[in-house]
Design brief:
The chain is α/β, with parallel strands linked by helices. The protein is 29% helix and 18% strand.
Length: 397
């Protein structure tokens, strides 16, 4: 793998191919409750396996016919295949059939509830005067946005029609790479220079509206539209995602082990290589290739051990390189030092919340500090502190 060129143009990834048929799926749980399913329970494609307590966060479903073989705090494991009878001569256990749900004619609130039940998070679709569809590839060396716009246009337009019912915009804009001829019905295409980090939502808003404020603007990605469009087409829970890996575009079932996807993409990580979900700048390393693909995963990247200098725990050198490249115009060196020493209020004072998490600061860091990871930790800690404070106030009422 070469270092990122910062170009957001990927070239031709070919047609979207069917992903591997996994023998076991590991459905990720991210705040979901598993009270809806038990071990040894039979499941059909679309069977609910975990609900999320958030009213706008999509629930989790099985993508395959099979049996639940394990439940942990992090995943529901389903072994694919028809369930076997407990005793000879007895009928095999079966789960109730999953009936399609129509999204037609639903009120806004009922539509949000229906999407949640179908596994789609509606929290990203608040009302706004302007709706922007971000059609730029999320990162260098990823191609999912170009692939979806080129090959899945009918699905994206179905998704856009549903999202418009939620956002209720007066104008709809489509951000595409300069030179692209991609269009979507009911939207006006606007071209953006295809150089990272121009694909980040705040910078897309700036490029299309001239404003640095997100007030009155909702941005959705083409990946969001694809997810909504799929459930609108089928009426069935979301069971798949399109991601790119090894120059291929794959339609992958949720929970498919990353190792299976790597194998189909022709990627073989060597000892010391890192497997990244996402791209090389914003992606997250996974602890094991047995982990399952999650909703919204848009790329799978293998970073060779020698591709970049290793991350260190060295102290900041005060070189200022991170500040020079920061598109948010904050000082990542100071912010991350405050997080490192648990001075979260100071990190907030230095505008940690303004960080777009582009990863450029860590890329240029002379000391090779994990700047993006520190910032993500700081944001998460501040969110937990705010939630705890809100809970305490509610209990005191």
């Amino acid at each position: 793998m070469t270092k990122p060129s910062f170009s957001l143009l990927s070239g031709d990834s070919g047609p979207v191919q069917a992903g591997p048929e996994p023998g076991v799926v590991r459905i990720p749980l991210r705040g979901h409750s598993t009270k809806t399913i038990k071990k040894k329970a039979p499941v059909n494609p679309g069977t609910l396996v975990a609900e999320h307590p958030g009213s706008s966060v999509g629930d989790a479903h099985s993508p395959v016919l099979g049996v639940v073989t394990d439940i942990t705090d992090f995943e529901v494991v389903v072994t694919a295949g028809a369930p076997q009878p407990a005793k000879e001569g007895e009928p095999a256990p079966s789960a109730p059939a999953v009936e399609p749900v129509s999204l037609d004619g639903l009120s806004r609130d009922d539509l949000k509830k229906a999407l949640k039940g179908l596994g789609v998070s509606a929290s990203a679709f608040p009302k706004a005067a302007t709706l922007i569809v971000n059609g730029l590839n999320p990162e260098p060396d990823t191609a999912v946005a170009e692939v979806l716009l080129a090959q899945c246009k009918p699905t994206l337009e179905k998704g856009l029609a549903v999202v418009q019912r939620l956002v209720e915009p007066t104008s709809v804009l489509l951000a595409v790479a300069a030179g692209s001829s991609a269009t979507l019905a009911a939207s006006t295409a606007k071209q953006v220079a295809p150089k990272y980090p121009n694909s980040l939502n705040p910078l897309v808003i700036k490029a299309l509206t001239g404003k640095e404020s997100a007030s009155g603007v909702t941005v959705v990605s083409v990946m969001d539209l694809y997810a909504v469009g799929r459930v609108a087409e089928t009426g069935l829970p979301l069971a798949e995602t399109v991601l790119t890996a090894g120059g291929k575009a794959l339609l992958v079932k949720i929970g498919t082990p990353l190792a299976d996807v790597l194998a189909q993409a022709g990627l073989t990580p060597a000892p010391g290589d890192r497997v990244i979900v996402g791209g090389p700048l914003r992606g997250k390393a996974v602890p094991s290739p047995d982990a399952g693909v999650a909703k919204g995963d848009y790329a799978l990247t293998v970073v060779p051990e020698a591709a970049f200098p290793p991350v260190t725990d060295k102290a900041c050198l005060n070189c200022g390189e991170c500040t020079l490249v920061c598109p948010s115009r904050i000082m990542p060196g100071f912010v991350t030092r405050y997080v490192e020493f648990k001075l979260f209020d100071m990190a907030k004072k230095f505008h940690i919340e303004a960080c777009m998490e582009c990863g450029l600061c860590g890329y240029v860091c002379t000391a090779r500090r994990p700047l993006l990871q520190f910032i993500r930790l700081g944001k998460q800690t501040l969110e937990l502190q705010a939630s705890a404070l809100t809970a305490c106030r509610l209990q005191g009422e």
